[in-house]
Amino acid sequence: MHNITRLSAADFRDSVKGLADVLVSAVADGFSLGFLAPFDQDAATAWWRGLQPAVADGSVTVWVAHGFDGITGTISLALEHTPNGRHRAKIAKLMVHRDARGRGLGRALLATAEQAAARAGATLLMLDTTTGSAAERLYHSAGWTRYGIVPDYAADPTGSLEDCSFFYKHLS
Hints:
The protein has one domain: Aminopeptidase. It is built from 5 helices and 7 strands. Strand 3 and strand 4 form a beta hairpin. The radius of gyration is 15 Å and the shape is globular.
């Protein structure tokens, strides 16, 4: 069983260091999350702090999983607030620290965000990930539908361009 909690704005501020640790770990392991190497704790901390206003105003929700050594994983959900898009949301920044991988934590975090999106009234979720990655296999196995691949969409941490798969999932 995983201990996953939704962060309030205050909890988010207090969790920035632990969130930065997970982000640094993921980028160091080559995951394409929007950052290039070298990527350090200060850069990760600054990125998470930049998200504070969105967490505070409720446009982004962040969950964390806790382990013995602190935060072991995270996922974010961004609800759409435009009048014609209030039925959809975007999953972002699903990350599991290297020391916690292979135990179903990514799947548990994904399910948590999907359930929260449904409770918030979203009926369509979107996300993107590196083609051929472990994350892509997770999304396929969790019932997501890939609707396209864009070649050379984003650079991995080393700067090499990678294809990106785009997914959607309808919620009941």
